[in-house]
Q: What sequence folds into this?
């Protein structure tokens, strides 16, 4: 099955979605540009014959944009790989996570390697489109975001671009859990103190009544 079929047609944003996410049109983009700007925020398009160059510049946690030249289908994913420091990653080592689309509705998180992407006749480029306005998470935090998304049955995204943006820049789940725990402890402590005060008042009232 073609990857683009599994992930859906060209990603579009519903009118109710945030203005941060936008569809890309290849008619207006500089396809094949060799310019890499501001710490690889955006790179040229790479094919299978440029594996060595691509693998030397991509980093875990980067957002990649994938394009099928035959169907003009575009989708986004988040890169994750973990190799020894003395080993350079190959296309087989690099995983890309995205979301499976069906009838325009985001489904489960899917994983594929760069090798599989290229075998489908696709081009790929680094496109950290949100770095200009947002601070990306650390590699560890991005991996945690991916794992959380893969296990979640309640989270939804507008499309693959939204998913990739959330993994790299979105609210970290561990921070949300910490805030929730802090709130529980805060209000739990208040409730406990109020309970103790109520018991003490009752005891004092009973003692005063027996006098």
A:
């Amino acid at each position: 099955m073609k990857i683009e079929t599994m992930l859906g047609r060209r990603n579009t944003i519903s009118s109710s979605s945030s203005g941060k996410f936008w569809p890309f049109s290849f008619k207006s983009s500089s396809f094949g540009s060799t310019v890499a700007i501001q710490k690889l925020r955006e790179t040229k398009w790479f094919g299978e014959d440029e594996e060595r160059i691509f693998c030397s510049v991509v980093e875990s946690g980067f957002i990649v944009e994938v394009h099928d030249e035959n169907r003009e289908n575009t989708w986004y994913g988040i890169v994750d790989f973990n190799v020894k420091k003395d080993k350079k990653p190959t296309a087989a080592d690099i995983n890309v996570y995205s979301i499976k689309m069906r009838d325009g509705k985001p489904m489960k998180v899917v994983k594929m390697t760069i090798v599989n992407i290229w075998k489908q006749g696709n081009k790929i480029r680094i496109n950290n489109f949100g770095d200009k306005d947002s601070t990306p998470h650390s590699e560890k935090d991005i991996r945690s975001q991916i794992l959380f998304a893969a296990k979640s049955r309640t989270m939804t995204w507008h499309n693959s671009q939204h998913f990739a943006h959330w993994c790299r820049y979105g609210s970290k789940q561990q921070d949300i859990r910490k805030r929730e725990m802090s709130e529980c402890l805060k209000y739990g402590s208040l409730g406990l103190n109020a309970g103790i005060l109520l018991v003490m008042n009752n005891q004092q009232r009973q003692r005063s009544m027996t006098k």
In short: Residues 173-210 form the longest helix (38 residues). The chain has two domains: 48-170, 175-206. The first strand starts at residue 63 and ends at 68.
